[in-house]
Amino acid sequence: MLETVGLDALVMPQRGESMRVMHPLFQVGEGGSIPTSPLQMRVEQMDFRHALRLNEAWHSRLPRMGTGFIANQPFLSFGACHEGRIFAVAIWSNPVARNLPQREWLELRRLAVALDAPKNTCSWMLGAMARQIRKLRPWIETLVSYSDTEVHKGTIYKAAGWQQTTTNRDGNWARRKRQRPTAQSIAPKLRWELVLRHNAELTRAARDDEPGRDASRRRG
User: Fold this and answer.
1) Is 156 exposed, middle or buried (0-12, 13-18, 19+ CB in 10 A)?
2) If we measure between CA atoms, which residue out of 188, 189, 196 comes closest to residue 145?
C-alpha cells in the first residue's frame, strides 16, 4: 500500500475524528459515507492550522512541519472532502531551498491522507490542486516537491505528470550557515517538478492580473 501513496502521503490509523469536519460551524453530527473513488470528492482551500493538525495525525514519516524563514508568508492549504468530511490534506509554501525562485515557484510541503481515503487519492489531488493553483495564483510557473527514497519511488508524481529533476543525496536540509531542527528523515530526496506556465504565458498572465486592469482590456 505504501508504494501507491508517495513520499509526502504516508498514512496512519485515524485519530481525531472531530478534526476531519471541513466546516464545523455548519456540520450537523459526524460520519457520512466513505467515497469509493477520488472523483466523488472535491478539493477546497482550508485553514493552515487545521491542515497542520491533520498532517500531524496522519503523516507517519513527516508529522512535524516547521515554518522557518517563511513564517510570515501565507501558506496555501487544501483538503479533499466528501460530504463535509476530510480525507486528505496538503500544505504549500514558497520553496524552502533559497536558490529556487521564491515568487514563481510553489512547493508542496506536506500531503497526508486518511487510512479510509479511496485508492489514487494522492495523484488525483495533485492534479486537482494544480488546476486550482493556476487560477488562484496565476504568477506561479512551477510546482515542486520531494520524495523520500527510503520509502517511496515517486509513484504519485509520475501518475500526475510531474517530472523528476534532481536528487538531494544527503537528505539533510541543514547547512553550516543555516542550521535547522533535527531532520525527521535523512534519506536522499528526489525532486519533482510540474511546469504550470512557460515564460511567455506567465508574462501574459501576470500582466492580465494587474489590479485595475478591466475585462475589455484583457480581451484586447
Assistant:
1) buried
2) 189
Task: Give the CATH number for residue 151.
Answer: 3.40.630.30
144 and 107 in contact (C-beta within 8 Å)?
Answer: yes
Residue 179 in any domain: the answer is no
| 97: its cell numbers | 531551498
Cβ atoms 88, 111 nearer than 8 A: yes
The angle formed by the CA atoms of residues 124, 163 and 208, to the nearest 5 degrees, is 75
CA–CA dist 47, 194 (Å, integer): 24
Asked if the structure places residue 178 within a domain, the reply is no
pTM of the model: 0.73
Give the residue numbers spanning the domain of 120. Answer: 2-26+34-173+184-219
Q: Structurally, how many domains does the chain consist of?
A: 1
Among 107, 104, 103, 110, CA closest to 95: 107
User: Which tens digits make up the pLDDT trace of 91-121?
Assistant: 999 898 889 999 999 999 999 999 999 999 9
